[in-house]
Please model this.
Amino acid sequence: QVQLVESGGGTVQAGGSLKLSCTASGNMFSNDAMGWYRQAPGKQRELVATISTVGRTTYDDSVKGRFTISRDGAKIYLQMDSLRFEDTAVYYCSVRRFGLRAPTYWGQGTQVTVSS
Model:
């Protein structure tokens, strides 16, 4: 089992910045990928960004150039700049086991609200 705890959510005006943090504990493997997903009201959960153990990153097109994912061992961060109203969502930290296509573990989520 892996436990994930997110922090850093809040309310910010459009154009502002927030930084999310996530700490993983428990049975982490050395090749686990980690990432951030988000879910807005009435919408499906969607991928925001992922990072591998060697620092390879992927981003959804909607956040490229505005969000930056980083990793320090079992901790990951999401620096969110130039926030838009449509970035409002609950943000979830995730762990994906090597070889699997979908996350295996999820955090409890942290709310990000961008006011226009």
